Amino acid sequence: MRARTLLPAVLAAALLTVTGCGSEGGTDSGGDAQAAPPKTASSAPESTASGEGEGDSGTQVPEALNFSGTTVDGKPFDAKSLAGKPTVLWFWAPWCPKCRAQAAETAKVAADYAGKAHVLGVAGLDKNAAMMDFVAETGTDSFPHLSDEAGEVWKRFEVTEQSRYVILDKDGKTVYEGVLPAGEGLAEKVAGLTG
Known about the structure:
By secondary structure, the protein is of the alpha/beta class. Helix content is 31%, strand content 17%.
C-alpha cells in the first residue's frame, strides 16, 4: 500500500529532474519565444491591483504578489513587500547544477539593483536543510529565499522545472519567464525594467 502512494511522487520528481536541468527554454515580452511551456488562461496570477491591499511602501499589491511563505532560515515572508518594484523570482533546487551555475550572477544582480528591484529565491524539490546548505555554499544569502517544500509558489506561477526565472515588472506583470544559463542576460533584463 505504501509503495502505491509513494510511486506517483517519485515519478513526478524524476520527471522534474529530467525536464528541469535539461531545458533551456524561455519567453519574454519581446516576442522571443524559446520552447517555454504554454500558459493557460488561469496560469500565472493576474497582475491587477484590484483591492489586494497595499505593500510596505503604500503601493497597491498586484495579485501576482499576493502570497506568503517562510524563508529557508525560518522567517515569515510576505510577497506584498515586493510591490512597486520589478521583481525577479528565481526558482531553484539544491541539487540542480544549472541552479548552482546561476547563483553567482543572481546574487550579483540582487546586489547591483538593491533598492531598485527585488530578487527572491524560491527553493523547492527538496528539504529545507538542503536548501539552507545551497544558500550558504553559493553565497546567495544577501537576498531572501523561500522554502517552498510543498511547491505552493511553484504551482502559483506554473513553474514545472527548476533553474527558472520569472521576472515581474513594477506592476506585477510577467515580462519574462525562462531559463538563463549561468544567469546570462539577467542583469540586462532587470536594467531594462529599472530605467
